[in-house]
Amino acid sequence: MTQKDQKSPSNVSEIAGASQAQVWQRRDITHAEPDWLAQEVPVALVYNGISHVVMMATPSDLEAFALGFSLSEGIIDTPQEIFGLDVVPGCNGIEVQIELSSRRFMALKEQRRAMAGRTGCGVCGVEQLDQIGKPITPLPFTQTFSLDHLDAGLARLRDFQPVGELTGCTHAAAWMSPTGELRGGCEDVGRHVALDKLLGYRSKADWQQGAVLVSSRASYEMVQKSAMCGVEILFAVSAATQLAVDVAQRSNLTLVGFSKPGRATIYTHPQRLR
Question: Among residues 147, 170, 149, which one has the least CA distance to residue 58?
Fold first, then answer.
């Protein structure tokens, strides 16, 4: 997780998740010059010896990613259901080896068997929204947020994107307190992975009051992952999709898009906002 007091990217010779390469600019295509690129590697999440999914990700904060993914996908309910977690570099990528409790591993195997029996993409032909994604228990209404504090959080979001500052190639997800302070944040080339990393850290931190702020659009997966982890308010810098709004509505999540200085579009459950 990026820390607020981290040295500015312009003052470092290397940074986790980024590497240098020679590039040619339009202004002078005859001479190469160094530039920074965000790293993107295959990361396999392996549960009790069985590979479950391979994601393309920035190779940092991978323990938090595995924990957040496990929570947001409903594989576990609490971090205590993971007994061990190891990050193992390989020739073609990175494995995150996760040891689940016996009960959770049995449930995961049942889920995998059900998925194996489907044909096509698994969504085509679905007639009801309730059949898409994970079942979500409707969220309570315990959080409030004053929109007067949103601009303060937006102004600090780039503090949690050192790789993005160098490369222009990452998304960020941060936890914003009710006063607009960003308590912590993560970045990744994938917006879902950045969110999972943040949710993993949040599960072990004392971040109950507040909201998630993401630098991307709000797709239904972003809403679903947040709701699965008990997040009641989600601010997105860009737009929301119709399905994201539908999922937010039925899960009682307050969804806000186009979160920019002096601006916000509230799609669902505005009663949490002031």
Answer: 170
**Residues linked to residue 175 through DSSP beta bridges, in sequence order:** 184, 212
Q: Which residues pair with 141 in a beta bridge?
A: none
Choice among 59-63, 80-84, 120-124, 173-177 with the minimum mean pLDDT: 120-124
| Order of strands, sheet of 94-100, starting from the edge strand that comes earlier in the sequence | 50-57, 41-47, 94-100, 82-89
Confidence band, pLDDT 50/70/90 cuts, at residue 76: very high
d(CA 157, CA 199): 16
Residues 133 and 151: their CA atoms lie apart, in Å, by: 32
**Residues annotated as catalytic (active site), given as ranges:** 121
Helix (H) or strand (E) holding 224: helix 220-228
pLDDT score recorded for residue 87: 96
- pLDDT above 90: residue 92: no
How far apart, in whole angstroms, are the C-alpha atoms of residue 234 and residue 210? 9
Average pLDDT over residues 85-113: 88
CA dihedral 170, 171, 173, 179 (to 10 degrees): 100
Quote the tokens at residue 206.
């004392």
> Model-level pTM?
0.86
Query: pLDDT tens digits for 150-209?
Result: 999 999 999 999 999 999 999 999 999 999 999 999 999 999 999 999 999 999 998 989
Q: Which residue type is seen at 47?
A: Y
- CA separation for the pair 84, 79 (Å, rounded): 10
Q: From 94, 90, 110, select the one nearest 102 (Cα to Cα).
A: 110
191: exposed, middle or buried (Cβ count in 10 Å: 0-12, 13-18, 19+): buried
State the DSSP code for 2: B
**Which residues lie closer than 8 Å to 6 by C-beta, 6 or more apart?**
162
